Amino acid sequence: MEIMLAKTAGFCFGVKRAVDTVYEQLEENQDRKIYTYGPIIHNEEVIKDMEAKGVTVLQKEEDLDHAKDGIVIIRSHGVPKRICDRLDALGIPYVDATCPFVKKIHRIAMEENEKESCLIIIGNSSHPEVEGIKGWAGEDAVVISSAEEAEKFSISEGRRVCIVAQTTYNYNKFKELVEIISKKGYDIIVLNTICSATKERQEEAASIAARVDAMIVVGDKHSSNTQKLFEICDHACNNTYYIQTLDDLDMNQLRSVETVGITAGASTPNNIIEEVQNNVRINF
């Protein structure tokens, strides 16, 4: 069997930076409690390891009141401005591990709010990154995730519109929704804020999936960018499997194939990818 492993599989820059930040804080502050606001990344295996080393995940804003004995690390997806303000008000030291590409969108959101523009965020409204961006954009920021929502969007004449994207969004879908909104004739500025690593990962995954008999996508079930990779690969290859760890892979599904492609989300550790690759190679 031939195995094609995507070169872009695994931790992206922002995720590696956030994960490294947590382990560095554990090492440097052994006398203090370490918290993360929300899971630092979307990967259960990584979170379990951090929790085993003493990291506590704060799940909601009210939990901050109980974190005065330690240091809070802001997740890679970023948080709304009010969270930073609350940490300051409570006097809790914090380390901002927000991905720099997401942080850039926060700055855009603030600047456009000052200009009284309407910010459109193309992405998943329930994703923490999008919730964070909204929290820097003012009261009337709009999240659009479907053609139907794009068609329904309207705003008062003469007001400027700024469109940004969730960094892990599907590039082709972003273009489709921008096109629908652009036809409405508003004064629009479009900023493609999809991370270049995300776009490269999606393009490579599609290319591999189109050339293999079966495709394996490795990543956490809550990972937005991994879900997008699965959708892209599933479109190009009928035998596409979404797994979180090797335990989720049914080797019998690969018995009759000659070529297998493997890719992984931006929050998937290398050891999990290597374990999948090695086991597929050993078994066939």
Folded structure, characterized:
The model has no long low-confidence stretch (mean pLDDT 95). The protein has helices at residues 13-28, 44-52, 81-90, 100-114, 128-134, 147-152, 171-182, 196-209, 224-236, 270-283; strands at residues 2-5, 33-37, 56-58, 70-74, 94-96, 118-122, 142-144, 160-165, 187-190, 214-218, 240-243, 259-264. It is flat. Helix 4 (100-114) runs parallel beside helix 5 (128-134). It has a 4-stranded parallel beta sheet, with helices on both faces. Strands 3-2-4-5 form a 4-stranded parallel beta sheet, covered by helices on one side. It has 284 residues and is α/β, with parallel strands linked by helices. It is built from 10 helices and 12 strands. The chain is 41% helix and 19% strand.
